[in-house]
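The instructor's notes for this session suggest beginning with a concrete chain rather than abstract definitions. Hand out the sequence below and ask the class to guess, before any prediction is shown, which regions might be ordered.
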Amino acid sequence: MLLHAIAAVSVMLVITGTAMADDDMERVRELRGTESILPLSDILTTAAKQYPGKVLEVELEEEHGQIIYEVKLLGRDHKVHHLEIDARSGRILRKGDH
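After discussion, reveal the predicted structure:
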């Protein structure tokens, strides 16, 4: 299961060209191993449904005890969207445009 999760994250990063820091990758592997967070592929699918475009960067953060994927993407509207997505539920918590 853990190897599948690692492979899925690695493949998704290659497919999307997403940049993710090495320490974030280690944290994703650790949390996916315990099934504490959703797979990155699920998170990116959620983001793409509401904000289609190209994923530019993904970071994993912990804020006030909540694990969050921060996703930066270039939308079809040519705006950069910053999304904060709950890593456990996949719910979009916050969105900002630039």
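Then share the key points. Helices lie at 2-16, 22-33, 40-50. The longest strand covers residues 53-63.
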